[in-house]
Write a structure and sequence with these properties.
It contains 14 helices and 13 strands. By secondary structure, the chain is of the alpha/beta class. The protein folds into two domains: about 190 residues, Rossmann fold; about 160 residues, 3-Layer(aba) Sandwich (Rossmann fold). Strand 6, helix 7 and strand 7 form a beta-alpha-beta unit. Helix 3 packs across helix 4 and helix 8 crosses helix 12. The longest helix is centred in the last third of the chain and has 19 residues. The radius of gyration is 21 Å and the shape is globular. The two termini are about 15 Å apart.
């Protein structure tokens, strides 16, 4: 890859937290190629970490969970003005609202853009006016996209079948990929009692209640089995679970809530199995990729994106969404394994991540597409 100096690339997402945690290595890779990177998001506690990467950061208000059209129009205007001023080579979009509104701002400025569809969101959870509106906005906004990346084949097919995008501008990514040098297999800690963890934002749609219900049942039979929850509560989302609800589960002894963590590796290294009974419209859940890279068994739902992380019976198990009984059955299989079988199954997760979900695959696809845009524009 040639080094390309003084060309601006904008990376845009809802939050600084999201850009740092999911796109850090992409930003670093683009900077290493000689591009000047500008990160656009709503600023939060991760702004300093994002700035430390060497990119410029611009604050844009994104009402990620809201449905106020006036706030959304304001976001589009903000993005339009920033893009008109910077005139970047290309804008890279992440998260649904940014994918739509940033694409519109790019089109109005005649600026190239690449979108990343990381789950269908409202398109899969709603069937009325809102779903039709979002579908219309996607179709309107993606007409001039240079490339639209999808994290699973079902989402890609849905967009193509609905004529939102043409097949020839689409491509498939292995989720966000996982940094295999950062998430590594540590020496196995022999747990006297099996330990499970669910890592996610505390949203009902992530299957949190199903996980707690399964824990409640299993602890009656296996009282020493541990169930952990890790991730932020009271987040800005209609599906958010309150801190008080989580505290009540913890007080009753169903789960241990660990709060949020900037580095989840120490928590993952302490468990046998990572669980995500999600019925959320996932791309490919990052938490499962990170768990797999650390050699952990995965139990998740047989849904788009989630199922991509599991080879049934090889590195984990799939259960039906919103089916607590099925989830309990799969967790009991893990509990009743002998230790060496749990180790072997976990190591199969690592092998799967190395083969299919290496973050370098994602980085290379982005750099190839950007270099093609660079050549086409003759800069």
């Amino acid at each position: 890859m040639h080094k390309l100096h003084d060309s601006y690339i904008i990376v845009a997402a809802n939050t600084s937290w999201g850009l740092y945690n999911f796109r850090k290595n992409l930003i670093l890779s683009l900077l290493a190629e000689g591009y000047r990177v500008v990160a656009i998001s709503s600023h939060d506690d991760y702004l300093g970490k994002l700035q430390s990467l060497g990119c410029e950061c611009i604050n844009i208000g994104v009402d990620s969970g809201g449905k106020n059209p006036f706030k959304d129009i304001k976001t589009i205007i903000q993005l339009f003005n920033v893009y008109r001023k910077i005139q970047p080579l290309v804008v890279l979009h992440f998260t649904p609202k940014i994918c739509i509104y940033s694409s519109i701002a790019c089109s109005l400025n005649n600026i190239s853009f690449i979108s990343n569809i990381s789950g269908l969101g409202v398109l899969s959870s709603e069937h009325g006016f809102l779903s039709k509106l979002v579908k219309f906005l996607y179709k309107l906004s993606q007409r001039k996209a240079s490339k639209v990346f999808f994290q699973n084949e079902i989402d890609r097919s849905s967009f193509i079948d609905s004529k939102i995008v043409a097949y020839d501008i689409t491509d498939r990514l292995p989720g966000s990929g996982v940094d295999l040098d950062y998430f590594t297999v540590e020496k196995y800690k022999k747990n006297t009692n099996v330990k499970f963890i669910l890592v996610a934002r505390m949203l009902y749609a992530k299957g949190i209640v199903e996980y707690v219900d399964a824990a409640k049942h299993i602890k009656k039979i296996y009282p020493n089995v541990k169930f952990y929850l890790l991730g932020p509560a009271d987040v800005d989302n209609p599906s958010a679970i309150s801190q008080s609800t989580i505290d009540s589960w913890s007080n009753k002894g169903y789960i241990d809530y660990l709060g949020s963590a900037k580095d989840i590796r120490k928590y993952l290294s302490n468990v046998d199995c990572v669980v995500l009974p999600s019925y959320y419209a996932e791309g490919v859940p990052k938490s499962l990729l990170e768990a797999g890279a650390m050699g952990k068994i995965i139990v998740t739902t047989d849904t788009a994106g989630c199922r991509d992380t599991v080879d049934e019976g090889v590195n984990g198990f799939l259960c039906a969404p919103k089916n607590v009984e099925d989830l309990i059955n799969k967790l009991e299989v893990v509990i009743n394994m002998i230790g060496s079988d749990r180790i072997h199954m976990g190591l199969n997760s690592r092998k799967k991540m190395e083969k299919e979900f290496d973050e370098k695959i994602v980085l290379d696809k982005y750099k190839e597409e950007i270099f093609q845009i660079y050549n086409e524009e003759g800069t």
